[in-house]
């Protein structure tokens, strides 16, 4: 997986499903992250090839509910994002899906109480030893590229120091959301602090925060020096943000999404 000069769909809970990812790719996304899946949940699944739909499904045992679905069309673009707080459990879960995706990402930035209380997401930011354990365990045991996504720490130097420790684990790229844990979505993303991380690392850095128009992809790259750019809310509001021709009317995007959904039914 190449992480330089890419437009990236961010992981979004209840949004980053297969139809939405395929639509984003059609509009111009180079890489599409799936919604975060917790390792505990994945370990309760079984892998099934769905010949009727042409998909690979991770189904919850007992209920048959689809926990994660992918297909060959996105095989070289989809990133599986995992929530975890344990290296061995993360490895066991990743082994279930790593052959069907382009990369595996560990969520280290989610500030929601569910993640924090479970020691996942942004809770990992204060546990650099555990971060090292999780990432090195995955790197040593999987051929699949491993990445992670973090938020900014209280001061820029702390973020840089953590990013350097993460880089030493041998991951392929680091995504940085330009907000701190207490920040709200309405608070401006701190592009200058992403730039501090970029200047300190040699691996690709994916900048995330306040991308709402196609031109913002270049603006944040210029401001931060990041290798690639990730968009969340901008894509949620209109997935055609990835198109260099400009965003399509919302009704057109909505109809395309419905076509994608029914194409997988």
Give the secondary structure arrangement, pairings included.
Layout: E1 7-9, H1 18-27, E2 31-33, E3 37-38, H2 39-42, E4 45-50, E5 55-60, E6 66-71, E7 78-83, H3 87-97, E8 103-108, H4 113-117, H5 128-141, E9 146-152, H6 156-167, E10 173-180, H7 191-200, E11 205-208, H8 214-224, E12 228-231, H9 233-237, H10 250-263
Parallel strand pairs: 1-2, 1-12, 2-7, 3-7, 7-8, 8-9, 9-10, 10-11, 11-12
Antiparallel strand pairs: 4-5, 5-6
Helix pairs in contact: 1-10, 3-5, 6-7
Short description:
This protein is α/β, with parallel strands linked by helices. Helix content is 36%, strand content 23%. The strands form 2 sheets. An 8-stranded parallel beta barrel has the order 1-2-7-8-9-10-11-12, surrounded by 6 helices.
CATH homology-level superfamily: Aldolase class I
Can you identify the CATH class?
Alpha Beta
CATH-level-2 architecture: Alpha-Beta Barrel
Number of strands: 12
The main sheet comes to: 8 strands, parallel, barrel
Low-confidence stretches: none
Determine the strand fraction and express it as a percent band: 15-25%
Q: What strand line-up does the widest sheet have?
A: 1-2-7-8-9-10-11-12
Q: Tally the helices: what do you get?
A: 10
- Molecular shape: globular
Our Rg estimate from Cα atoms comes to 17 Å
Helix percentage: 25-40%
Count of domains: 1
Q: What is the average of the pLDDT values?
A: 97
CATH topology: TIM Barrel
Key words describing this protein structure:
265 residues; alpha/beta; TIM Barrel; eight-stranded parallel barrel; three-stranded antiparallel sheet; 10 helices; 12 strands; globular; DUS-like FMN-binding domain-containing protein; Aldolase_TIM; flavin adenine dinucleotide binding
